[in-house]
Amino acid sequence: MGPLEVIFGIIVIFIMLVALARGYPKELGNTVIILATIFVLSFLEARIISLFGRVVGGDGQANNLLLSTLFELGFVSAVFASYAGITFDFPGRPLSAPTGPLLTLAIGLLNGYLIAGTLWYYQDRFQYPTQLLGLIQLPLTVTGQSLVAVLPQNLFESPVYWMIPVAVLIILRVRG
Amino acid sequence: MTDQLGTLITLLLYILFFAWIGYQRGSKREAVVAITAVVAWIVLQEGGDIFVRIVNLGSKFVAFVRAGGLGANPDAAFGALGDAPPWVTADQRDEFLFILWVIVLLLAYVVSNLKPFAKGSKSDGWAVLLGIFNGLLFAAVLLPKLATLVTPVVTEAGQVEPVGIANLFGVLRSGFGLVQESLGGLWGFFEPAQRSILLLVLLTIFLLLAASTLKGSSKKPSPSSAEKRS
Predict the structure, then answer these.
(1) Tens of pLDDT, residues B45-73
(2) Contact between residue B210 and residue A168 where contact means Cβ atoms under 8 Å apart
(3) DSSP string, A95-140
(4) Which residues of B33-69 are buried (b: 16+ CB within 10 A; e: fewer)?
(5) Which one of A82, A90, A99 would you mutate to disrupt binding with B, by most B Cβ within 10 Å of its Cβ?
(6) Where are the domains of chain B?
(7) A113-168, pLDDT tens digit by residue?
(8) Which of A30, B35, B152, B196 is the most buried (most CB within 10 A)?
């Protein structure tokens, strides 16, 4: 098992490859869903943790593992829903090469950062509970520690910020 | 002699390149760029201080507004006017004027591509000459700046080694280093709270631009937009 940033880097590359296959009109729709999910989960984070504490009680790594799994499952489910079934994509023909594929790669990189970054955030938020399962090796490298500061949920003071690009994109999508 | 021949060929290639660009763009558009470049250069050299003062007035205005402006106690705001540090200091004057000139030049290229200038812009001998003139002008102004990216290799005997293709990586490394340093400096200029706002604005603009490039998006969404996959 290599450093954590390598694992999440590989996730980002995979998402970029998926984006390249799908094209940026579809990937923009995923961006909207991912950003909205990040907002909802960040908004509810404290409430869910508090409720979980009251219902389950106790404290420790096992609880952290359950909580991180809960948040990550919720996030992954929303991301999966945005990729499968009826997708929320933007109508219109994408730009031709090389601008179109470059835009697709850039938006794929953004989606990859949001997805991998969110999964990492919930590991960091609950003190890396998956190390109980031997999936993560700690301590983080210097690069890993610096990357934690720029994870999506640590980037802005309030999760409401994420809704600004979402609102702009939805307006553009509705306007057609 | 061989060195001279190499330099001559490089110069000819450079001139040919700009002559070709001039021919492609046409005389009218090249004339707009040439006139703008020369006039802007003269104006900025002769009256550059006016532009520096205008920009520094902005710093005073911001300090004035931050201190309360013409509110209940305007004395503090007027006091802040004198203490406001200038955005462009005397040391930065030349760099600032150079950046201003480059911005004007870029705008000239953008504006000259608009319909009124593009219409009737003939690809003739004048276009070639104006293209060469623009190329030489850019070389005179830009090359001294770019030369700082190339670190000359001096042998023990004190001779400067000829620059080969291997130096391309050196130039790229210097260029990336310069971009990284400049962006880092620019990033440090903002306070942490402002950085997140800046990131948010940049992200929103990027997504907006990406979405607005979709052609034919005003048409009724195609069935594929709500495609159901198994």
Answers:
(1) 888 889 888 888 888 888 787 777 777 67
(2) no
(3) PPTTHHHHHHHHHHHHHHHHHHHHHHHHHHHTT-GGGGGT---SSP
(4) bbebbeebbebbeeebeebbeeebeeebeebbeebee
(5) A90
(6) 168-210
(7) 999 999 999 998 888 888 777 777 778 888 888 888 888 888 887 888 888 889 98
(8) A30
* Closest-CA residue to A154 (of A120, A109, A107, A108): A120
| Residue B200 contacts A, CB cutoff 8 Å | yes
CA distance B209 to chain A (A): 10
Record the pTM: 0.62
Q: Distance (Å) from the C-alpha of residue A128 to the closest C-alpha of chain B?
A: 26
B227 and A CB contact within 8 Å: yes
Residues of A in contact with B217 (CB under 8 A): 90-92, 176
What is the rounded CA–CA span in Å between residue A168 and residue A118? 22
With tokens 């399962």, the residue in question is A133
The whole-angstrom separation of Cα A83 and Cα B158 is 64
Q: Which amino acid is it at A18?
A: V
Query: What residues of A are in the B interface, CB distance below 8 Å?
Result: 24-25, 28, 31, 84-87, 89-95, 99, 103, 106-107, 110, 155-157, 161, 164-165, 168-169, 172-173, 176
Dihedral sign from CA coordinates of B129, B131, B136, B141: positive
Minimal Cβ distance to A90: which of B200, B203, B211? B211
Q: Is the ipTM of this complex over 0.85?
A: no
Q: Do B214 and A157 touch (CB under 8 A)?
A: no
